[in-house]
């Protein structure tokens, strides 16, 4: 049994990890259902023994969140496309045309994300929405650290190739 | 060693997964091979876009519904023996602490600076216990063991970095909410450029302003601590930063109300220049002379008042200062204007019960209840109950621009008049714009109450009205103070007043005091810094310098009795080795200001230099102001745009989206 009020560390973990978990879950099940997935994740955390979970808290949270999100997605039987970037982008970005270009580039990268093989896509999401280390990603995906490095490397190369291809197509069209 | 640009380690390097030796290898390759460098830049950019893109469409925090479910759940698993009230308090502070320190910066954070700081420290410790087992894991592989019962330096820096990055991601709106600097005194138009060096051959007598303001420092703090942004240079006023700190200059000797001091050493940002610190300090206030105080505050509790960082938080900060000055003879009462109950928020409490007083101040919550004149009547009742003969018996109304008592005004005015006649005065404090009817009403009420009306627009104003005026400690002890600085043209080629950009003009100011004399109060201090360019020794070193003075500081003032006095402080070149910790600390603060302003005079000063200098010169640091400055510097290090190191990690300006230089298709864009 935990020896102190559970609220303390769970709420601390909540404030620390709610944003990355929401980012991660949103990419799998869409932002509407992400909140429920994250809520379930933390509900599970409430019943855990702090001492057991804490040493690998982040990996634990993302593993649970991932399982929950995949369940939800399975029920929906469809992959939520990541590419629907909101029209409203952060307004503290550089001037209008630069921001526009940036938004366009971001849209392409995210669009390309959905063409990746499942494992690679998962590694990318864990890395860039959850900011997990290779070690943690390996724990979540049940693979080795070097394989994580390889997955990410391959994924990023593929993303860039996709984007460059689209760039060229756009270029050709505009001529 | 040659690296393929297709090596997976390049990505690992960008993502910070390599150990030091491997990183160095990659860095060597980057320096040696432009192709690798291009690859690294492209990887960085893709990584950044993924991060930003994924963050863009996701909610930043749980909606209230889910959060509530979680809070219920955590409550359910708590130990039953914890008393409910205390439990609620514990949870809310911890939640606030964690939220503040680690992820979100809620709008109301500013409200509770002091508490936040404590809470942030607590959260940091908590975070470290999270991180500790991680550390342990590393220790088994790392050659040097680390002490993980305490937060080690690396972990702490890592936490700070995460903290600041999180803030930076969310700080956009917060930065917009930080007010523009407001002045206590009317000043000429702000100038972006810095005061130039003046040749002593043309002007050798100067003066510096004595009506110092410190608003800039709190703004700089807010930009860095809350928004994780580099403060715009219009906000950074070096003189105000320097004067925001207390210094340990010796107080005046004997009955003299004023002391002056001059120090010199090498300028930290330019070793061939000298930096001069001139300081004025008045005698500290003698607390035994202070009349006993019985103060009652009626405080607006509307949402608008509580949430605006320029209203309730400002008042709370000043009240905390006030509490620090109170002792067991004093009574403080706080009443919510339109609180839900008739009971005072804080019943009359002796001034030495600090924990209770501070707690009540921090716990002021916005309420939906309609305000009523009852609160004011209640305030007078409490004031009457603890009336001190011969002391300060005063009711304060702290209201904003929505204040209105229209139907009851006549009745209230009559009550206030009656109480004023009986020795309980009423003062009003206006927060927000006071040019409308609210300001009028507050003014009228203060007149009826034989008190004063003050508009509170800055921490300084709040402190002055609540602490100095409220306690009756604000009586000038040196009137019509003027300063003159006479530079010795033989040794000093040119000089430059640091800061005060908007208060010096090209001509007249340097010849005479421009603003007229200023009154100084007990416990005040003024610091001015000059940078001097020494005249090169043309005698070939054979002759001793004919005049051993660099400058003479002259201060003229009238004593309370009307008698005119003059203090003359010479500053000798040979004292350059004896500068105090005050000197170096002020130099560090000024250096930070120059760095933030990107001043042309900053030389090659770095944040690390400033940090080292500040850390070494903390002095006794009563109140911990200097230690907080050091913490600010640490945060500044991780604030985007302040350290030059941050620049290259930004993606290079791009034309297309992911173009490689040399790509023929891209170059045509």
Question: How would you explain this protein's 3D organization?
Answer:
- The complex is a heterodimer of chains A (175) and B (669).
- By secondary structure, chain A is mostly helical.
- Chain A has two domains: 6-76; 96-174, Orthogonal Bundle (Arc Repressor Mutant, subunit A), CATH 1.10.10.
- Chain A is 75% helix and 0% strand.
- In chain A, helix 1 runs antiparallel to helix 2, helix 1 packs across helix 4 and helix 2 (31-46) packs across helix 4.
- The longest helix of chain A is centred in the last third of the chain and has 30 residues, at 145-174.
- Chain A is elongated and about 60 Å long.
- The longest helix of chain B has 29 residues, at 113-141.
- Chain B folds into four domains: 8-58 and 648-667; 64-170, no CATH class; 198-285 and 475-638, Sandwich (Immunoglobulin-like), CATH 2.60.40; 291-469, Rossmann fold, CATH 3.40.50.410.
- Helices cover 40% and strands 18% of the residues of chain B.
- Chain B is built from 22 helices and 16 strands.
- Chain B has helices spanning 8-14, 20-32, 34-56, 64-76, 84-102, 113-141, 153-170, 172-177, 215-225, 238-243, 303-307, 312-325, 354-362, 374-385, 409-421, 437-448, 459-469, 581-597, 607-616, 625-637, 646-649, 664-667, and strands at residues 198-199, 205-206, 258-267, 270-282, 293-300, 331-337, 346-350, 392-400, 425-431, 450-456, 476-487, 492-497, 518-521, 525-534, 549-559, 564-572.
- Chain B is an alpha+beta fold and 669 residues long.
- Chain B is flat, with a radius of gyration of 29 Å.
- In chain B, helix 12 (312-325) runs parallel beside helix 17.
- In chain B, 41% of the residues are buried.
- Chains A and B meet through helix 1, helix 2, helix 5, helix 6 and helix 8 of A and helix 1, helix 3, helix 4, helix 5 and helix 6 of B.
């Amino acid at each position: 049994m935990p020896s102190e009020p559970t609220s303390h560390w769970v709420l601390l973990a909540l404030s620390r990890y709610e944003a990355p978990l929401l980012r991660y879950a949103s990419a799998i099940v869409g932002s509407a259902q992400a909140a429920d997935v994250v809520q379930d994740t933390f509900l599970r955390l409430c019943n855990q023994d702090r001492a057991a979970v804490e040493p690998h808290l982040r990996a634990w949270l993302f593993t649970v969140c991932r399982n929950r999100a995949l369940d939800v997605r399975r029920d929906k039987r469809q992959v939520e496309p990541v590419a629907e970037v909101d029209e409203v982008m952060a307004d503290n970005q550089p001037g209008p045309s630069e921001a526009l270009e940036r938004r366009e580039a971001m849209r392409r990268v995210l669009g390309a994300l959905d063409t990746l093989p499942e494992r690679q896509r998962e590694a990318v999401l864990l890395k860039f929405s959850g900011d997990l280390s290779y070690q943690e990603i390996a724990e979540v995906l049940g693979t080795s650290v070097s394989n994580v490095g390889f997955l990410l490397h391959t994924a990023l190369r593929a993303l860039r190739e996709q984007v460059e291809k689209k760039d060229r197509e756009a270029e050709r069209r505009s001529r | 060693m040659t690296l393929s640009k297709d090596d997976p380690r390049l990505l690992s390097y960008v993502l910070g997964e390599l150990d030091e030796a491997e990183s160095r290898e990659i860095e060597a390759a980057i320096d040696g091979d432009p192709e690798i460098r291009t690859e690294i830049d492209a990887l960085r950019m893709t990584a950044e876009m993924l991060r930003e893109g994924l963050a863009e469409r996701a909610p930043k925090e749980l909606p209230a519904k889910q959060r509530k479910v979680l809070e219920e759940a955590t409550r359910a698993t708590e130990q039953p023996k914890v008393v409910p009230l205390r439990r609620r308090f514990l949870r809310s502070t911890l939640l606030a602490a964690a939220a503040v320190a680690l992820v979100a910066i809620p709008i109301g954070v500013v409200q509770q600076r002091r508490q936040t700081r404590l809470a942030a420290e607590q959260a940091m410790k908590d975070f470290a216990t999270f991180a500790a087992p991680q550390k342990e894991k590393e220790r088994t592989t790392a050659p040097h063991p680390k002490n993980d019962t305490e937060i080690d330096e690396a972990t702490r820096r890592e936490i700070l970095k995460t903290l600041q990055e999180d803030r930076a991601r969310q700080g956009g709106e917060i930065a917009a909410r930080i007010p523009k600097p407001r002045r206590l005194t009317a000043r000429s138009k702000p100038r972006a450029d810095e005061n130039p060096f003046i040749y002593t051959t043309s002007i050798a007598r100067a003066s510096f302003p004595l009506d110092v303001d410190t608003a800039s420092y709190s703004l700089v703090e807010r930009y860095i601590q809350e928004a994780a942004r580099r403060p715009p240079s219009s906000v950074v006023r070096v003189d105000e930063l320097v004067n925001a700190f207390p210094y340990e200059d010796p107080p005046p000797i004997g009955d003299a109300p004023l002391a002056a001091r001059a120090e010199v050493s090498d300028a930290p940002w330019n070793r061939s220049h000298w930096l001069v610190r001139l300081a004025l300090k008045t005698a500290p206030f003698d607390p035994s002379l202070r009349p006993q105080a019985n103060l009652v505050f009626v405080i607006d509790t509307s949402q608008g008042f509580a949430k605006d960082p320029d209203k309730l938080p400002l008042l709370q900060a000043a009240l905390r200062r006030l509490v620090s000055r109170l002792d067991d003879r004093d009574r403080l009462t706080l009443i919510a204007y339109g609180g839900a109950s008739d009971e005072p928020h804080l019943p009359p409490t002796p001034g030495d019960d600090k924990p209770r007083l501070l707690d009540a101040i921090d716990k002021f919550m916005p309420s939906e209840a309609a305000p009523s004149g009852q609160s004011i009547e209640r305030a007078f009742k409490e004031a009457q109950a603890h009336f001190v003969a011969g002391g300060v018996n005063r009711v304060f109304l702290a209201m904003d621009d929505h204040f209105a008592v229209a139907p009851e005004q006549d009745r209230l005015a009559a009550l206030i008049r009656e109480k004023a006649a009986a020795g309980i005065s009423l003062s009003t404090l206006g927060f927000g714009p006071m040019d409308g009817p609210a300001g009028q009403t507050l003014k009228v009420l203060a007149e009826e109450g034989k008190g004063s009306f003050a508009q509170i627009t800055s921490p300084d104003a709040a402190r002055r009205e609540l602490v100095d005026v409220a306690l009756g400690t604000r009586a000038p002890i040196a009137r019509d103070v003027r300063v003159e600085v006479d530079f010795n043209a033989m040794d000093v080629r040119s000089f430059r007043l640091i800061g005060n950009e908007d208060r010096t003009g090209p001509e007249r100011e340097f010849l005479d005091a421009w603003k007229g004399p200023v009154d100084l109060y007990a416990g005040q201090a003024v610091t001015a810094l000059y940078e001097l360019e020494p005249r090169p020794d043309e005698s070939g070193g054979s002759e001793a310098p004919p005049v051993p003075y660099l400058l003479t500081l002259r201060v003229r003032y009238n004593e309370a009795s009307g008698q005119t006095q003059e203090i003359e402080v010479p500053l000798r070149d040979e004292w350059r080795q004896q500068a105090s910790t005050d000197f170096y600390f002020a130099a560090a603060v000024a250096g930070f200001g120059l760095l933030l302003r990107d001043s042309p005079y900053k030389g090659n000063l770095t944040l690390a230099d400033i940090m080292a200098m500040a850390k070494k010169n903390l002095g006794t640091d009563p109140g911990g102001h200097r230690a907080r400055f050091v913490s600010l510097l640490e945060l500044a290090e991780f604030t985007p745009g302040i350290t030059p190191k941050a620049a290259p990690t930004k993606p290079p300006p791009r034309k297309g989206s992911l173009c490689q230089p040399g790509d023929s298709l891209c170059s045509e864009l």
